[in-house]
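Bit of a strange request maybe. I'm writing a small parser for structure token strings and I need a real example to test against, not something I typed by hand. Could someone generate the tokens for this chain?
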Amino acid sequence: MIPRSARFARPWLAAPAIALVLLILTPVGAALAHASLVSSDPADGTTLTVSPASISATFAEAFDTGRSSMELLGPDGATRATNAAAASATAESMTISGYGTLAPGVYSVRWTTITPDDNGIERGTFRFTIATTTASPSPTAGSGASSGGAGDIALPLVALGVLLAGGLAWFLRRSR
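Reply from user aminoacidic:
Good idea to test on real output. This should exercise your parser:
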């Protein structure tokens, strides 16, 4: 039989273990809070029949407008246009305009965001196609980033957290 004083000590042992798990997961959550791409217009993978008047991207967090950028790359990989200077020091979206009519082909938009609070850098690319046909525009993919998003690592980290919490609960329950 376990002495009464040992039974009362077990909950006090659980608190430091839970605090340790939270300390480990908190920096991970902060690391995932960079300005990753949320949506774009045109959406990633979209086929258009006419040239868009502007290209915009919205991000998950405010970024430093002076150090972040977005550029339109033509089918040949050459830079066609870049985002205009922003009026404020931080923003959550960027726009490219004033590039004229785009010829048929596959275009890429390469972006880089740098957050002002922790200098977190995110990079990615989304693509769209200008078709030669007169068919109506048809999105062929979602509006997220094709690369560089925080979702690439978020799911494994959440799974790790759930496993740690489950293991801790099992250990505490077994030790009773």
